[in-house]
């Protein structure tokens, strides 16, 4: 009897977590990275806890309750305290709150999961779908940011910039120490694994560098655009890899892509390949990458994504040779923060009014996952 | 005293009877060499441990552009060294030596003279051709030109011949030519990289990664996208245009300043706006990239006053020549934050001394001089071949010809 009642409650809970019904005051929880001493440096620094996306007074003036924290890990963290009664959870890939099935189950009032940025793999999407939640991200908000950053890392690794910078700050001067393994980007074969929004923006920025541009994706780009960009479609990923001097990862993290670049696939790449991954760390086999950098099979690996995040102090990618790693920053420039804060505000506004979001923003809607996650 | 003066005269005569005399004029280049090999001297950076097992690395002294076999098989002599600066080398060496003679005993005069001469010096007297590169520049001063009795041709493997006293070369009837190869593209790529490194605040993030840290805010609070920014190139010659072309898809507002305006069709294709007045352009810019040669006009042109005209928080990239900037003014502006980031691979002098302020100023993206070091061995070979045959070079390669300097150096 108890079980039947519980099931009935759960059914009611699922059906009533329809995000687009209007209601009174909501509890909104946001998990962002802390700025600390950097909080006051820039009024546009809205992406941090202290900046709170710049929407606190807007939310509070409408009678909503807004809690913002960076404390997301462990059973006693600040986030845990609000799981049971929050209506909306705003997360961000740069300091991701892992929204597990277990947390979803306990979040009785939860209706909406918003990602301030792009990439919602830190959420158990099938569990969210089964629970009737809506998941949405600010699609397009930082695609340009990430594409610029990928091109930067390609150049840093190919041109062997970092050893030169090291020499300078250490008082040294040894041109040969850099030049013996420094190359131009011009004339190289560059392949992007994934040619969605970011992949295409990258290809457009690569075009004047006069490279041989290849792309692999589930879908072929429209022929007109393909011709304009000057990139060739490669249907078979494993056939494309050995052709490339540079490989850039531009796929979301899904069940299909998790760990797809393992030891075997890395071995298919050209010896001396440059790999850039601003997509998700878990697409790569962490140890396989570290070993390939040590052996020199990978001549340079760069990116701003790791698994997990924040990366622990002893993560091997910090210490492998010839890397161009940073914390997860490429999509959280000041310009990107302003765009995704604006996008979150817009979706919250629509949510309060019971209106739909821009269709491209949905990751989970009415029990269905967006196609890239299927 | 008399003994010292006698010793001094002996030393001075050991330097060569005409050491202090004006060089003869009319060392005409483009007459075919009659009989006998030429002496070719090349000054390049040392490859050291990196030279082994890397045959493509032609630009280092050990691999000597890969043209030794070719030159020697034709009966020419080829001397290559990285040793270009003795402790008192350069145009002041004679003066310093003379001064030292008054102060020293005969014994120490001899020792001092031996210490002065770099390897390069030993070969100046009879070299016909001197090949230099900007990455490890042999400073070809007026006094060195005067002592180089047989010299006919100065070849710069790379772009920029300001390490040569061009006026003295012209007066001495020398030909100066550059072999740029693909360096223009190399430098343009490198400039765009440094713009992104600084605008996107990459280096603090990398430092965190290797130091075991994680502080997104520590990077993000001053990280910007390049998109939408106003980017200007000071100088729109070959490299400036290649840079503009690579900037185009980034969606910036592109400006350029130059003595000459780009053709309208190309201006439109590049999407860049001409700015006739440099000082009016500077305050508009989020990013400024230097793309002029070092000449008497451009030396020190970016001084404290001109830097002050730039927007607070400007990003500057200079892969042109260090001496275009006032060294201390740049360091001061980085320290105050008026310059939010300064990056480049050129310094004055080169190699940069251990205590050069640009190494230690905040928010720098400096490296040694590397952006164009893919030295074009084939291009040098082609140029030497024409020289041996008495043929002209491609017109755009001349820096000094028949007593005249190329337009950008006038």
TrEMBL record, chain A:
One of its GO terms (biological process) is formate catabolic process. GO terms for molecular function: formate dehydrogenase (NAD+) activity; NAD binding; oxidoreductase activity, acting on the CH-OH group of donors, NAD or NADP as acceptor. PROSITE patterns: D_2_HYDROXYACID_DH_1, D_2_HYDROXYACID_DH_2, D_2_HYDROXYACID_DH_3. Its EC number is 1.17.1.9. It is an enzyme of class 1 (oxidoreductase). It catalyses: formate + NAD(+) = CO2 + NADH. This is Formate dehydrogenase, mitochondrial. It comes from Digitaria exilis.
UniProtKB/TrEMBL annotation, chain B:
Residues 193-371 form the D-isomer specific 2-hydroxyacid dehydrogenase NAD-binding domain. Its EC number is 1.17.1.9. Its main location: mitochondrion. Keywords: Mitochondrion, NAD, Oxidoreductase. Substrate binds at residues 159, 183. One of its GO terms (biological process) is formate catabolic process. Pfam families: 2-Hacid_dh, 2-Hacid_dh_C. NAD(+) binds at residues 184, 238-239, 258, 293-297, 319, 345, 369-372. The record marks 321, 369 as: Important for catalytic activity. GO terms for cellular component: chloroplast; mitochondrion. The keyword Nuclease does not apply. The keyword NAD applies. It is found in: Mitochondrion. InterPro entries: D-isomer_2_OHA_DH_cat_dom, D-isomer_DH_CS, D-isomer_DH_CS1, D-isomer_DH_NAD-bd, FDH_NAD-dep, NAD(P)-bd_dom_sf. Residues 108-189 form the D-isomer specific 2-hydroxyacid dehydrogenase catalytic domain. GO terms for molecular function: formate dehydrogenase (NAD+) activity; NAD binding; oxidoreductase activity, acting on the CH-OH group of donors, NAD or NADP as acceptor. It catalyses: formate + NAD(+) = CO2 + NADH. Homodimer. Catalyzes the NAD(+)-dependent oxidation of formate to carbon dioxide. Involved in the cell stress response. This is Formate dehydrogenase, mitochondrial. It comes from Digitaria exilis.
């Amino acid at each position: 009897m108890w079980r039947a009642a519980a099931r009935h409650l759960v059914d009611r809970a699922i059906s009533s977590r329809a995000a687009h019904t209007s209601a009174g005051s909501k509890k909104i929880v946001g998990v962002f990275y802390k700025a600390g001493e950097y909080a006051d440096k820039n009024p546009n620094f809205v992406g941090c806890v202290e900046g709170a996306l710049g929407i606190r007074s807007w939310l509070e003036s409408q009678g909503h309750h807004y809690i913002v924290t960076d404390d997301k890990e462990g059973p006693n963290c600040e986030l845990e305290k609000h799981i049971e009664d929050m209506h909306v959870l705003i997360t961000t890939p740069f300091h991701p709150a892992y929204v597990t099935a277990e947390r979803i189950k306990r979040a009785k009032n939860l209706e909406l999961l918003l990602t301030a940025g792009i990439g919602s793999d830190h959420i158990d999407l099938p569990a969210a779908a089964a629970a009737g939640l809506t998941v949405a991200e600010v699609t397009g908000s930082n695609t340009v940011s990430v594409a610029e950053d990928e091109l930067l890392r390609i150049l840093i690794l190919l041109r062997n910039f970092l050893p030169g910078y090291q020499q300078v700050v250490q008082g040294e001067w040894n041109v040969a120490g850099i030049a013996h393994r420094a190359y131009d980007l011009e004339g190289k074969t560059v392949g992007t694994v994934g040619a969605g929004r970011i992949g295409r923006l990258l290809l457009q920025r690569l075009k004047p560098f006069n490279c041989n541009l290849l792309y692999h994706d589930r879908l072929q780009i429209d022929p007109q655009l393909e011709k304009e960009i000057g990139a060739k479609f490669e249907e078979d990923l494993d056939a494309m890899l050995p052709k490339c001097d540079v490989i850039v990862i531009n796929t979301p993290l899904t069940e299909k892509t998790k760990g797809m670049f393992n030891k075997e696939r890395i071995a298919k790449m050209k010896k001396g390949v440059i790999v850039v991954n601003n997509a998700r760390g878990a697409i790569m086999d962490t140890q396989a990458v570290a070993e390939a950098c040590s052996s020199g099979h990978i001549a340079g690996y760069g990116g701003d994504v790791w698994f997990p995040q924040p990366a622990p102090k002893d993560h091997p990618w910090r210490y492998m040779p010839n890397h161009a790693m940073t914390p997860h920053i490429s999509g959280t420039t000041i310009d990107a923060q302003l765009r995704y804060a604006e996008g979150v505000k817009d979706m919250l506004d629509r949510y309060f009014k019971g209106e739909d979001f821009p269709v491209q923003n949905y990751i989970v809607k009415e029990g269905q996952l967006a196609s890239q996650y299927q | 005293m008399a003994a010292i003066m006698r010793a001094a005269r002996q030393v001075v005569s050991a330097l060569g009877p005409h050491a202090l005399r004006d060089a003869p004029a009319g060392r005409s280049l483009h007459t075919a060499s009659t009989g006998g090999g030429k002496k070719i001297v090349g000054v390049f950076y040392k490859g050291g441990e990196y030279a082994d097992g890397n045959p493509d690395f032609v630009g280092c002294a050990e691999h000597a552009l890969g043209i030794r076999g070719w030159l020697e098989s034709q009966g020419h002599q080829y001397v290559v060294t990285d040793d270009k600066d003795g402790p008192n080398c350069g145009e002041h060496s004679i003066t310093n030596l003379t001064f030292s003679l008054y102060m020293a005993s005969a014994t120490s005069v001899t020792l001092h003279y031996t210490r002065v001469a770099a390897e390069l010096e030993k070969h100046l007297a009879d070299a016909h051709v001197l090949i230099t590169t900007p990455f490890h520049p042999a400073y070809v001063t007026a006094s060195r030109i005067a002592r180089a009795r047989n010299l006919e041709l100065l070849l710069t493997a790379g772009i920029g011949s300001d390490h040569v006293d061009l006026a003295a070369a012209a007066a001495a009837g020398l030909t100066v030519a550059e072999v740029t190869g693909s360096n223009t593209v190399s430098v343009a790529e490198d400039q765009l990289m440094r713009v992104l490194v600084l605008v996107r605040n990459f280096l603090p993030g990398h430092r965190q990664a290797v130091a075991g840290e994680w502080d997104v805010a520590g990077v993000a609070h001053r990280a910007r996208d390049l998109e939408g920014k106003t980017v200007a190139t000071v100088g729109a010659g070959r490299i400036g245009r290649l840079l503009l072309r690579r900037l185009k898809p980034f969606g910036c507002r592109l400006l350029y300043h130059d003595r000459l305006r780009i053709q309208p069709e190309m201006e439109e294709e590049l999407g860049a706006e001409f700015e006739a007045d440099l000082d009016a352009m500077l305050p508009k810019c989020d990013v400024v990239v230097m793309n002029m040669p070092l000449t008497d006009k451009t030396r020190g042109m970016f001084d404290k006053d001109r830097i002050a005209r730039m927007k607070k928080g400007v990003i500057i990239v200079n892969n042109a020549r260090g001496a275009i900037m006032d060294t201390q003014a740049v360091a001061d502006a980085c320290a105050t934050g008026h310059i939010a980031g300064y990056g480049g691979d050129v310094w004055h002098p080169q190699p940069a001394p251990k205590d050069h302020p640009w190494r230690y100023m905040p928010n720098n993206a400096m490296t040694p001089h590397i952006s164009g070091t893919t030295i074009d061995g084939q291009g040098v070979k082609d140029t030497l071949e024409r020289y041996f045959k008495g043929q002209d070079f491609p017109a755009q390669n001349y820096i000094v010809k028949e007593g005249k300097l190329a337009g950008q150096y006038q």
